[in-house]
Amino acid sequence: MAFKVTVVSTSPIDGQKPGTSGLRKKVKVFKQPNYLENFVQATFNALTPQKVKGATLVVSGDGRYYSKDAVQIIIKMAAANGVRRVWVGKNTLMSTPAVSAVIRERSGADGSKATGAFILTASHNPGGPTEDFGIKYNMENGGPAPESITDKIYENTKTIKEYPIAEDLPNVDISAIGVTSFEGPEGKFDVEVFDSADDYVKLMKSIFDFESIRKLLSSPKFTFCYDALHGVAGAYAHRIFVEELGAQESALLNCVPKEDFGGGHPDPNLTYAKELVARMGLGKSDTGGEPPEFGAAADGDADRNMILGKRFFVTPSDSVAIIAANAIEAIPYFSSGLKGVARSMPTSAALDVVAKSLNLKFFEVPTGWKFFGNLMDAGMCSVCGEESFGTGSDHIREKDGIWAVLAWMSILAHKNKDSIDGDTKLVTVEDIVRQHWATYGRHYYTRYDYENVDAGKAKELMEHLVKLQSSIPEVNKIVKGIRSDVANVSSADEFEYKDPVDGSISKHQGIRYLFEDGSRLVFRLSGTGSEGATIRLYIEQYEKDASKIGRESQEALSPLVDIALKLSKMEEFTGRSAPTVIT
Which cofactors are reported in the record for this sequence (predicted)? Predict the structure, then answer.
C-alpha cells in the first residue's frame, strides 16, 4: 500500500515547553489544530538524522483518553519523516518501564533495534475528555531525553513553520498483533503491533527468583493484593502475578486498563488508592475481615508504586533504603554487589545511612529520572529512588513500579524461606521495616502537596523563602518564636547539582532548610501538573534513639510542620488552610 507525503503549513503555539516529565496539558489543549503535530515535528527536528531516517521508533503509552488518536497521527508523521518502522503496543498499551525495556532489549525479526520512543502518558494525573494528556521522548538508552534535547525541542516549537505527514496513510489496526507494511517516497515503512508483556516478563525473570516468590505466594499464610488503579499496569499484572507466580485472580484490583482510569486519580498514595487502602486495613472505617499480608499499587503508566503491609504503610523513602539494604541477599540480579545507590534531593536520607553502613557510593540528585540514568550509564549506580513513589534499578532507565513490587516480594520470600511451611509465623512487611529502623534509625517523613495553586503566588512564596535564607540568625529567631523545642537551623540554600558524569550543572532544584539534628525542610515547585502550580513541602526528622522510633509520624513531625507552614507563610500566599494531599 503506497502513501504520499503532504507538507502542512503551521505556526508556533505558545507554551510547548517540556518539563522533566515531557509535555503535559489538558486533552482540549492537545486537540487544538497542529498542537500535537508541532510538538512531534519539533522533536524529530531536535534529533540527529540517523535517529529518524531509517530508524525504528516505539510509540505507545498508558492508554489514556486521546492515545488512540495520537498514535495514528504520530505513525503518519513518522512515515513522512522517513522512519523505517514503528513498534506499537497492542491497543496502544505499554508501560513507561516496558517502553524503556523494549528500547534496550527488543530485537525485531530482521535484527532491528529501537533508537527512541514517543511515550503517551501524563503519568499519575487523571485521564478522560476533560482531564490530562502528555507526551515525552525517550532516547536510545531507554531513558528520558536530556535537557540538551528538550531545550532544542522547545526552541523548535517557537520557530516551526511546517511539518510533513502521510495524510493518506490509512489508520493501522492497533488492536491486532501483526505487521502492516506500506510503501512511501523513501521506501518501505512498517508498523508492528505486539504484546510488550512478553519482553517485560522475560526481563523480570532474569532479575528475580520467580520460583522463590511463587513458593511464598503458594503459602496459605501469605495473602497479597495488587491495585493497578485501572492504569496500564493491569496489562502486565495478570500475566506476572497470576500466570507466572500463581496468585489468585481475586488478588488483582482494578486491573482492567481504562481510558479514564475508571474515573479515579491513578496516583498510588494513601489518598487516591482508596480501595486498596481499605482492603489493607488502613481506611478510616474497619471493612471487616483480615487484611492481606502484602499490598501494592501502581500509577497510570506503571512507573510508580506504593508498598503496604497489613495495616502498615511503607514510605517510598524507606522502601528504596530497605531494597538497597537487602538487594544482595534477596535479588539474584544484585548477588555480585551494588555499584552505588542514589536518591532525589527531597527523598529522606534513609538511603544515605544504608550507603554509609554498607560502604556504597552514594549520590543525591535533582528530581528527574534522567539524573539517575546518567549515573547508571556510567556504571555508578544500581538502585535508586525518589519520595514520589518512584523506585528502580539499572535494568532500565525509568522507574519501575512492578519491579519494586517484585523486589519487596523477593525480600519477603528471602526473610521467610524457613517459615513458609509449618506453624512458624511469617516475617511481615511491618517486621522488616521496624527491624530496619532498629538497625539504621528512623527518618520520620511526610510530604504536603498544594495542587493547582496560582502560579504567581507560588513563585512569590518561593522568593520569600530564598530571601529569608540571607540571614540564618534571623531564621532561627523566627523558628524559636514558633517552637522553642526544635533544633536550630544550621544552613539553608537552593539545591544545585553538578553531574559527576557530564559536568552539567542544575540550579534552583529546591529550597532547603537544614537543622542541626539532621532534620530538613524542603520546598519545591513541581512541574508534573497540567495547570496551575504544585507546591511540595517535605518534612523530615531523623531519630537514632531506639526508644523513640515507634511514634506516630504526624506526632513526631508536628513541631516541624508548624514551623514549615509559618516560616513559608503558606496560607497567606496560597489561600489554602490545608494541603490537597498528605503523604
Answer: Mg(2+)
